[in-house]
Amino acid sequence: MQKIIRIGTRESELALWQANKVKKELAVLGYESELVPIKSTGDIVLDKPLHELGITGIFTKNLDISMLNGDIDIAVHSSKDVPTVLPKGIVQAAILKRANYTDILVLKDTEEFFGQPNGVIATGSLRRKAQWLNRYPTHKVEGLRGNVNTRLEKLKNSDTWNGAIFAAAGLERLGLRDKGAIPLTWMIPAPAQGAIMVTALENDTFVLDACEQLNHHESKVCVGIEREFLNLLEGGCTAPIGALAYVDEKTSEVNFKGVLLKRDGTKKITVTKNVKLGSHHYLAKDCADYVINRGGKELIKEDTEVATKIAHVYATKKLSELQKETLSNAIGIEDSDFIKMRFNRIPLKAVTNVHDNVVITSQNGVAAILNSFTKNELNFTNIFCVGRRTKKLIEKNIGKVTYAAKNGLKLAEYIASQKNIKAVSYFCSDIRLDDLPNYLRNKQIEVSEIEAYKTMLSPVKVPDTFGGILFFSPSGIESYLQENTTNKVAFCIGESTAKIARKHFKEVVVANMPDAESVLETVNSYYAISHKE
Fold first, then answer.
1. Which of 262, 342, 401, 470 is the most exposed place for a label (fewest CB within 10 A)?
2. Stated pTM of the model
3. Active site residue 81
4. Which fold has domain 341-457?
């Protein structure tokens, strides 16, 4: 009596469709088979992105175990879900004729959002997310998990998504492709997307002979090239890698194109190459070497290091390497100057005619004064300042500080408490808080404002992967808000900055001391507590 081939499959509608297709094709060849549904970890855990689950073969592992235990004879998979290295004892038995390999965008409403800066797209794929952000850097991409029907339902019920990305083959196999869906022909698909793979035990000759007859030669060649390219780049579902090989029937050439991206889409390396079918055996290696030689390994390493951090923060001013060493190695940090300064040329009479009492509230104010004058040209009687570092800079380059306070309001309170002070000269920027001058004027103290420098906003788009933003001035917040959202933690250098941050951010944390090192120590403390929880 001929053996009944037990077909292992996941329980999703798409997986069952694929398993039934294999069952039908085996039946045409005269083989009897039956389906054995088995749950996978990828089907059970739906609240985390795939790359965070940390399991090789998230959708195939349980089927592999069942096969090695003798519970099933073959397993049917979407080829793109199968690890490039199969478990010992299991081999690829067949690649069926490939279906549509493209990604498609299912729209929520209309296409108008393409031309808008704030589009929101949903996908659970790092590759799709990276390619979308590379093409539309001002858009936002949110996570989407579940089987095809679940994902379509989530899109339907969403009030914020403009669309979601799917594999065309999956929707077409289930008859769910929307007429208005847009083929993303510019997006390089996942290696082996659209193809069905059958795996079996390497020593089961009966099953291997049966499955060999299911092979589609060109699909097998192309899928093999794509999977080898992925393997050579050491990718998986933890790296945004796309690959596509197809045979041009007119020229009998294998056309290949591949891409490796940074997760946030800010960097990408692409490769294209054509060779004659039959001379394709080194195609994957040649293309992988091309990507590697252009920094591919470094890009993967950079992303991997970022992914292993417990948190990522972005500083709104450039920090020194020594300052960054204050931060825990478990926390990733990037920085950029969100504020640029342009020093004004201060006339000599502005410093010769100043009152005896001078107020400087920032290091930028000190730098602006020194940009116009030498230390010998300055002869201030009393200098009042904000911040320990500002004090240190003043005493090194201008003169002795009479009093330093933690923030502007505290300084104003101190000055007002000195009965002999009737007037001050305030070296400031064109953009500054009014707390200090307003307080002093309310106390009948004359304030002469000297605009020493101009503050220019220089915002940077911060990727969604950053959970915390480090602010060192109210102007830094103003600059940040021009390009970014407020769904992050605001770490502030002092209370004046925090006061502004609380108007926009739900969670604001203030450093114990008004200096960069204290802000970084605050980040360490925050995430140590958060991580333990």
1. 342
2. 0.59
3. yes
4. Rossmann fold (3.40.50)
